[in-house]
Amino acid sequence: xxxxxxxxxxxxxxxxxxxxxxxxxxxxxxxxxxxxxxxxxxxxxxxxxxxxxxxxxxxxxxxxxxxxxxxxxxxxxxxxxxxxxxxxxxxxxxxxxxxxxxxxxxxx
Amino acid sequence: xxxxxxxxxxxxxxxxxxxxxxxxxxxxxxxxxxxxxxxxxxxxxxxxxxxxxxxxxxxxxxxxxxxxxxxxxxxxxxxxxxxxxxxxxxxxxxxxxxxxxxxxxxxxxxxxxxxxxxxxxxxxxxxxxxxxxxxxxxxxxxxxxxxxxxxxxxxxxxxxxxxxxxxxxxxxxxxxxxxxxxxxxxxxxxxxxxxxxxxxxxxxxxxxxxxxxxxxxxxxxxxxxxxxxxxxxxxxxxxxxxxxxxxxxxxxxxxxxxxxxxxxxxxxxxxxxxxxxxxxxxxxxxxxxxxxxxxxxxxxxxxxxxxxxxxxxxxxxxxxxxxxxxxxxxxxxxxxxxxxxxxxxxxxxxxxxxxxxxxxxxxxxxxxxxxxxxxxxxxxxxxxxxxxxxxxxxxxxxxxxxxxxxxxxxxxxxxxxxxxxxxxxxxxxxxxxxxxxxxxxxxxxxxxxxxxxxxxxxxxxxxxxxxxxxxxxxxxxxxxxxxxxxxxxxxxxxxxxxxxxxxxxxxxxxxxxxxxxxxxxxxxxxxxxxxxxxxxxxxxxxxxxxxxxxxxxxxxxxxxxxxxxxxxxxxxxxxxxxxxxxxxxxxxxxxxxxxxxxxxxxxxxxxxxxxxxxxxxxxxxxxxxxxxxxxxxxxxxxxxxxxxxxxxxxxxxxxxxxxxxxxxxxxxxxxxxxxxxxxxxxxxxxxxxxxxxxxxxxxxxxxxxxxxxxxxxxxxxxxxxxxxxxxxxxxxxxxxxxxxxxxxxxxxxxxxxxxxxxxxxxxxxxxxxxxxxxxxxxxxxxxxxxxxxxxxxxxxxxxxxxxxxxxxxxxxxxxxxxxxxxxxxxxxxxxxxxxxxxxxxxxxxxxxxxxxxxxxxxxxxxxxxxxxx
Lengths: 108, 869
Prior knowledge:
The structure holds 2 protein chains of 2 kinds.
Chain A: H1 6-18, H2 24-35, H3 41-53, E1 57-61, E2 74-78, H4 80-97, H5 102-106
Chain B: H1 2-5, H2 12-21, H3 29-45, H4 47-90, H5 92-120, E1 132-138, E2 149-150, E3 153-154, H6 157-164, E4 168-183, E5 186-195, H7 199-202, E6 207-209, E7 221-225, H8 226-233, E8 242-245, E9 249-257, E10 270-273, H9 279-282, E11 288-296, H10 302-308, H11 310-316, E12 327-332, H12 336-339, H13 352-379, H14 385-394, H15 398-435, H16 447-473, H17 477-482, H18 496-527, E13 537-541, H19 551-559, E14 564-570, E15 580-586, E16 593-604, H20 608-611, E17 616-619, H21 629-632, E18 633-637, H22 638-644, E19 653-656, E20 659-668, E21 683-687, E22 694-699, H23 704-718, E23 726-728, H24 729-736, H25 738-772, H26 774-782, H27 787-821, H28 832-859, H29 862-866
Parallel strand pairs in B: 5-10, 7-9, 16-21, 18-20
Antiparallel strand pairs in B: 1-2, 1-11, 1-12, 3-11, 4-5, 4-8, 4-11, 6-9, 7-10, 8-9, 13-22, 13-23, 14-22, 15-16, 15-19, 17-20, 18-21, 19-20
Helix pairs in contact in B: 2-4, 3-4, 4-15, 5-13, 5-15, 5-25, 13-16, 13-18, 13-25, 15-16, 18-25, 18-27, 18-28, 25-28, 27-28
């Protein structure tokens, strides 16, 4: 199986939405804000590294900033492959959700 | 500005730890992420909460970290195993030699270490073993068997020590005894001790039944070992029963002692209360029969205490003159078994020297096996150039290569260790009975043995693997691909491999040399004329005192047995005459007496000298024709004549405490009545039957079992309580040198093992070198070289090594041999022949081992190896 997991999907979407300011801390904030769940840094590192290795993300290093103790930031962005993977999962989900009424799901 | 002011740095320790845990991709961005979060949490929930959060992250990350590093090293580990196993498979022959060598070496080492450990454990099981000392005696005027020191002292010593010195917590005394114990017509002769009621206060022997405080208090009490109680009483409860000892005393059983560990210098099957001995002997300072032990109070320095001991001598033995003055010294309990060789020891002690020798042999044999591995691995390195080159080009670090090659040696060692475990388990039972030690082996049951096993594993793995690993990993890939082979010749004398071979062969040569000399000395002992006959004589020791009063009747009955050709009754057998005392002999100046300080005395009958075939060189034997012989006749040996300075000994007056108006009627040729380690001393014979409890019986060889049975029946006819206690004279004689024989056998065994391991190495190396030089040989042969010239070319270097190692071994061996032989006054000579023989043997081995491979290589058809070029 070669589909994105839900965490991967969410992270990729967060990276896309943050556009040029996507690094681990900001991704975490975004995800926490939208999902209302607690995301730890470790929960982000693991999939983000895996996806970087698989070629769905690329990264660059920015200049160091004082609020990070003089350390650099790693900013992530989507590669064409990452975009393709998102498009694919979107299509599959759309297919799956067709003809499913949210109302009938929530009624029970 | 404001944001900068609020900036917090995380605690440095946590940051430091976090940095170790987080993956480092070169920029430390994750650390930055954490710091940013830290600040945010600090701003939101306060600094303390942030602080906890930060530390929490560390614990959060650790499991992942561990998993990660494991998965990587496991991956590499499997890779190493894979390549090692591949190599092992490719080189089956070499691997077999390596593993066998290492397994045999480790087996030897483990067995020796088990033995050494057991020997070192003697007497350590006592709870206070570090505070128990034996008080031994030095009597400068009494030289017995070459020593003036005695393990025994007066029975009055221990109570006096307890009374005089507050340092002494408890003091006890004991003495060895061998007597018959009878219960319900069941008579057994057993070894035991007399001990006083403090025995259990000093030593930690534990009682199964009975009370430690009272068991040895009453006179004529006896405490039995579980084993002996079982033998005498079966399943019956022995407490309170009465045992008859030696037909004389009735002893009441007051306790059963748990079977004591065998690693104790005090070994017994029963303890009789010391009070059973007559007080007149016990309290006498002159009678020395009792070993005294003290338990010092905690914190007492024993040297300080020892310095106070002369005051005891001053107080209780103030009648001694300056010359006869005795002194006492302390021996730590745990040192007795290996360091004490005094007169009248309770049991045969070992020697620390043997422990050293055995340990060194164990280590040397192990090293020889390791050297085999080193030599192969380095010799074969040429074959692995390409692998090393590729690994390095791909990016392997040197440390990784070292790890890989070390891993290989560890795998080989591990396989060898498995075989070792099987071998040790197989050999141990016979090894145990050979060294006569109750060695227990639970390889995996105790932490200490698991630790030492892993210690051996790591030691062998590192010693054999480290040098090859360092060497192989140092090759430059460029030269590896250029395929410039490492020189395979042995010519460079300083190459480590040659030094190692030299070392191996020097050790082997020394061992062979040592073995030869020991065998020669044992042969000398066996065949040297002792001056008396040892063949076909059985000695019956009789313990029934009543029987000793009528020896003639027993003698006559014994002579009626068809196979018996002679019987004599004496107090001692010819190879162990003691009873030393001084004597006065009339000198060549008429009327003047000379004193011989020590002369041993043996009470014999008319037949003794003839039966033992002792040569009379002057005068006559005891004879029933002279009625005065019983009162006055003395026969002495040459040595006594010499010591008294007599020219014409016959008819000279002789007096000793047990004979007042003696006359010398005969002189016998010197015979070895003591060990070959001691000079022949003066000895005398009297025609008496006091203490004559030894019946020497000469028999003709046919059907010895029937003869023994007949002897037993004859004795039983005269005594109801007879216990058949017999020994053959030549066995007892051999027993004198049992330690040497054992030592000899052990050395022979280990020498052979060392030679086998070393030659295994040689075979491997020789075949490898022949393999490497196949092309060279083929080209030489096509150019016209003969088989013999190639043979010389291939084996020459080995022979040079063997010769040099012999030159090293000779002086070392000479030193060892001389040292060992020094213990014997009567000994074989060290002649050059034995050195040449040992050299020849080592050379012979080398020829046999090397020549097969070399001949095979030299005779091969050159076409076979050249046709592919």
